[in-house]
């Protein structure tokens, strides 16, 4: 608990057996009430490692549902457990769980309802081993997204995010893709609905065992991101209407 609010950390996992324990050991369990791991039909022993660590809530998809499908399961379970604040953390140890108290406190104190751990703030991305082509793509996509959404974020592509229960309950997440573009659809919905977003500087680590998508999938993701941002622009300008934003109150 923090300020009388229940904290749940969700770990969307896929072949994370080699990095899960290191990630889990850094989670501040004196602050976090529950940890949920959703395994997306991994081919390794991620589930067994999670059980050995004593993670109480382990969900295994019998068939791979994709990154977005995994997160949908994560958030459904967290809300079912009564979470007031949900932290989504990749279990590949790219991001340090030591920032959870800072991210949670901003939400619990009512300062921001959404907090992102940014790899770009503080110039840590390249130092942490982010491939140059990924860094350049990140900067280009973020610039385009800021222009099209009217927002000013340092990056939209982090796998480290915290949300208030109220935000998650408002978002029509089931309409979103089950693929990697889910993250950007979710942020687009948050921005369109007018929820303020904070960012904290987050060091990053790139190494062989850390999860990553190949160049081809990265290209597909990039075009998907631009498509989401273009739809956001058309929607907020009143030039078109998309199901992605149905029921959301537009930003004033």
Note down, in words, how this protein is organized.
- With 252 residues, this protein is an alpha/beta fold.
- It has a single domain, classed as Alpha-Beta Complex (Spore Coat Polysaccharide Biosynthesis Protein SpsA, Chain A).
- Helices cover 40% and strands 15% of the residues.
- The protein is built from 9 helices and 7 strands.
- Strand 1, helix 1 and strand 2 form a beta-alpha-beta unit.
- The longest helix is centred in the last third of the chain and has 22 residues.
A few lines on this structure:
With 252 residues, the protein is an alpha/beta fold. 40% of the residues lie in helices and 15% in strands.
Contiguous low-pLDDT stretches (5 residues minimum) are none
Q: Radius of gyration over alpha carbons?
A: 17 Å
SSE order in H/E notation? EHEHEHEHEHHEHHEH
The number of helical elements comes to: 9
Provide the structure class.
Answer: alpha/beta
Oligomer: single chain
Q: What's the overall geometry?
A: globular
Q: What kind of sheet is the major sheet?
A: 7 strands, mixed
The portion of residues assigned to helices is: 40-55%
Beta-strand content: 5-15%
For the termini, the CA-CA separation is 33 Å
Instruction: Kindly report the spatial arrangement of strands forming the biggest sheet.
Output: 3-2-1-4-6-5-7
The number of strands is: 7
Mean pLDDT: 94
CATH topology: Spore Coat Polysaccharide Biosynthesis Protein SpsA, Chain A
Q: What is the domain tally?
A: 1
Task: Just name the CATH architecture.
Answer: Alpha-Beta Complex
Top CATH class: Alpha Beta
Task: Please name the fourth-level CATH homologous superfamily.
Answer: Spore Coat Polysaccharide Biosynthesis Protein SpsA, Chain A
């Amino acid at each position: 608990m923090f300020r009388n609010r229940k904290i749940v950390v969700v770990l969307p996992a896929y072949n994370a057996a080699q990095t899960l324990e290191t990630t889990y050991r850094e989670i501040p369990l004196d602050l976090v009430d529950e940890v949920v791991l959703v395994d997306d039909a991994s081919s390794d022993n991620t589930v067994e490692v999670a059980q050995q660590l004593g993670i109480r809530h382990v969900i295994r998809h019998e068939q791979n549902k994709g990154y977005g499908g995994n997160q949908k399961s994560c958030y459904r379970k967290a809300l079912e457990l009564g979470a007031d604040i949900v932290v989504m953390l990749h279990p590949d140890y790219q991001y340090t769980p030591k920032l959870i108290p800072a991210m949670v406190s901003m939400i619990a104190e009512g300062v921001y309802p959404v907090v992102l751990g940014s790899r770009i703030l503080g110039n840590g991305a390249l130092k942490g081993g982010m491939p140059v082509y990924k860094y350049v793509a990140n900067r280009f996509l973020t610039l385009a997204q800021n222009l099209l959404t009217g927002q000013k974020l340092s990056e939209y592509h982090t796998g480290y995010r915290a949300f208030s229960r109220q935000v998650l309950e408002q978002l029509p997440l089931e309409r979103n893709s089950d693929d990697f573009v889910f993250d950007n659809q979710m942020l687009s919905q948050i921005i369109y609905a007018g929820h303020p977003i904070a960012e904290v500087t987050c060091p990053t680590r790139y190494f062989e065992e850390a999860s990553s998508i190949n160049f081809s999938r990265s290209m597909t993701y990039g075009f998907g991101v631009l498509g989401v941002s273009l739809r956001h622009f058309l929607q907020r300008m009143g030039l078109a209407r998309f199901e992605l934003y149905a029921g959301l109150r537009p930003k004033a």
